[in-house]
Amino acid sequence: FGLSEKDLRNIKRLRFMAMGTSQNAAFIGQQMLAELARIPGETLNASEFLYSPELREDDALTVVVSQSGETADTLRAMREVQRRGGKVLGICNVQGSTLTREADHLILTHCGPEIGVASTKAFFGQVTALYLLAIHLGRANGTLDADEGRKLIDDLRRLRVHLDAAFRPEVREQIHAAAEYLATVKSCLFLGRSLQHPVALEGALKLKEISYIHAEGYPAGEMKHGPIALIDKDFPVIALATPGRTYDKMLSNIQEVRARDGKVVVIAAIGDQVAKSSSDFMIEVPEVPELLAPLITIVPLQLLSYHVALLLERDIDQPRNLAKSVTVE
C-alpha cells in the first residue's frame, strides 16, 4: 500500500480514473470514500483526463483502477498525473503489469486470472478494495472510530453467506424467466439511484457486451429528462429497487414505466411484495447494508446477461470486436 497515516490525513481531494467496468467500480468507490472518509472526489474517464485543466496536486490522490494494468488510455492518464506532480494509487488484478510497476502506491485485488473478455469478478474485487480503502482512510482521518471500522469489516465478512442466496434454485428460475423475455427485445434501459446507479451502468454494459442487445444505464432521476420518451411495450426497464434511502423513489420510477405500458424487471429484496406487484419479473436478492448492496445486486445482473447471451447463442467468452485488454488508444 505504501501510504503512511500522515500521508492519508493530508489527502483533501480524490480523483478516480478508469475505463469501462473499472470506471463503474470507481464511481461506487467515489461514493464510498465520500460516505466513510468525508473526502470529496470525482471520477473521470481516463481517456478524457488529458484534456482537463492542470490543478494543484499536493493535497490530492489519484486512484487509477484497471483489471489488467495495461489499458493504454489509463496508463497515459496516470503518467500525465505524475507529470503534473500528483501521486497515484493503483488498484489492479495483475501483478507485474505496467500499472503495478509505475504507480506510486498499489492495492492488488488478487482475483486470479479472468478468462472471459467481459469483466465480472474483477468488478467485485475492485469494489471490495475501494470499500476497504474507504474504511482505512476514514480511520486515518478520524471520521470513523475503531468500533465503526470493525463493524464495517464485519459487514463485509458476513457478505459471503448472503451471496449464496443469489444462486438458489428459485433465483435461477427468476433470472431465466427474465432472460427469456429480454432475449426477444432490441433495446432496454437499466435504472438505479445513488450506489445502484453505477450498478445499472455495469449491468447495461454486460448485456450489450455479450448479448449485443442495445442497453443503456441511467440514474433513475434522469429518466424524465429524455429516456422516458422511449418507453413502450417493446422497451423494457431493469430497475434496482433494494432497501435504503432511494427505495421509494425507485418504486415511483417503476410506476411511471408501467403507466406507459413498459415491462419491468426489478432487482429487489427477498419477500418484497410491493416491488413484486409493481413489476413483470422480479429477481430477489438478500438485504444487506446499503454500502455493500452493489456487491449483491451486480451478481444477478451478470447472470442475467449470461443467460440472455446463452439463449441467443452468442460467444460469451469472446464477444465480437472486443479485447480483454485495450492496449491501443
What is the structural class?
alpha/beta
The count of helical stretches stands at: 12
> What strand order characterises the main sheet?
2-1-3-4-5
Mean pLDDT: 94
Distance between the termini: 29 Å
Short summary of the structure?
It contains 12 helices and 10 strands. It is α/β, with parallel strands linked by helices and 329 residues long. A 5-stranded parallel beta sheet has the order 2-1-3-4-5, with helices on both faces. Strands 7-6-8-9-10 form a 5-stranded parallel beta sheet, sandwiched between helices.
What does this structure look like?
With 329 residues, the protein is an alpha/beta fold. It has 2 domains: 140 residues, 3-Layer(aba) Sandwich (Rossmann fold); 146 residues, Glucose-6-phosphate isomerase like protein, domain 1 (Rossmann fold). It has 12 helices and 10 strands. The chain has a 5-stranded parallel beta sheet with strand order 2-1-3-4-5, with helices on both faces. Strands 7-6-8-9-10 form a 5-stranded parallel beta sheet, sandwiched between helices. The longest helix is centred in the middle third of the chain and has 21 residues. The protein is globular and about 55 Å long. The mean pLDDT is 94.
Task: List the topology elements.
Blueprint: H1 5-9, E1 13-18, H2 20-37, E2 41-45, H3 46-49, E3 60-66, H4 72-83, E4 87-92, H5 98-102, E5 105-108, H6 121-141, H7 146-164, H8 169-182, E6 187-192, H9 196-211, E7 214-219, E8 237-241, H10 247-258, E9 264-269, H11 273-277, E10 281-285, H12 293-311
Parallel strand pairs: 1-2, 1-3, 3-4, 4-5, 6-7, 6-8, 8-9, 9-10
Helix pairs in contact: 2-6, 2-9, 6-7, 8-12, 9-12
